[in-house]
């Protein structure tokens, strides 16, 4: 099992077994993290628990402002390019899209194509090819954010920004422990 797919260039998950019991270790350069899988296997925490908290924090700071038609972009590593994401950044975006909608905000699916592609593999309406996407989708706000890697987990910084004026309408921060993130790999 490798967390390398989840957080490329920052994390590597190695699993080792012993006569006493199995444990896993998550390494972050230059810090070393140990996650005891026996200790955390009964925690019942999921990523959605943390994204709901984050969405509530964002919603609380948006109550005094009119915010509509929110698109959610992938969360990116807080590095010099702000263009590197990973499965965690993409899954945060997916979860928050649904969380904001459940809180009553109008969310926009900006990856929707103007057609349904039907083939033997299935029926498809989402794409990451910018040429295939609808042109006028009416986005007024974008939820975006960064991922900062710490010794025990990831700090997610999220913000809702107006597309017309680039004003931050809401911001929030949420810490997600590595044992929750490591379960994304083992369950996904």
Description of the molecule:
It is built from 4 helices and 11 strands; from the N terminus they run E-E-E-H-H-E-E-H-E-E-E-E-E-E-H. It has helices at residues 37-40, 47-62, 87-102, 178-187; strands at 11-16, 23-28, 32-35, 70-72, 76-77, 107-108, 112-119, 122-126, 141-149, 153-162, 168-177. It is of the alpha/beta class. Helices cover 24% and strands 35% of the residues. Strand 2 (23-28) and strand 3 form a beta hairpin. Helix 2 (47-62) crosses helix 3 (87-102). Mean pLDDT is 77; it is low at 1-35. It starts with 10 loop residues before the first strand and ends with a helix. Strands 4, 5, 6, 9, 10 and 11 form a 6-stranded mixed β-sheet that branches.
Structural class: alpha/beta
| Element pattern in H and E | EEEHHEEHEEEEEEH
Largest sheet: 6 strands, mixed
- Taken from the alpha-carbon principal axes, the silhouette is globular
Round the mean pLDDT to the nearest integer and report it. 77
Number of helices: 4
* First-to-last CA distance: 11 Å
Low-confidence stretches: 1-35
Fraction of helical residues: 10-25%
What is the gyration radius calculated from CA atoms?
18 Å
Strand content: 25-35%
DSSP E strands, number: 11
